[in-house]
Amino acid sequence: VQLQASGGGLVQAGGSLRLSCAASGHTASSYAMGWFRQAPGKQRELVAGIRSGGATAYADSVKGRFTISRENAKNTMYLQMNSLKPEDTAVYYCNTGGLLRTPGRYWGQGTQVTVSS
Question: How many Cα atoms are found within 13 Å in the side-chain-facing hemisphere of 27?
Fold first, then answer.
């Protein structure tokens, strides 16, 4: 399975961004998918996950601001990020092959999200 993430960038606090992750490969649509992020000097952490059937999970820090979704027919996952805060600044990675909150072995290349205050 290969993952291609896109949509990062620089935005002011309070703004919005939408990340996309396109998956290719055998049975990609049957896996749970998720977004993880890593800020400088910090460990990589779960942002949000979604099962193929649509069940979702979010980190407490993003609940109510971020929305994860997927289009199984297109093998594509999205992360709509609203009300962005400077502490959301990180490299965001898409992942698949694991469970709802646990990453699998397939990682995308990462996309930088920078939120200025």
Answer: 6
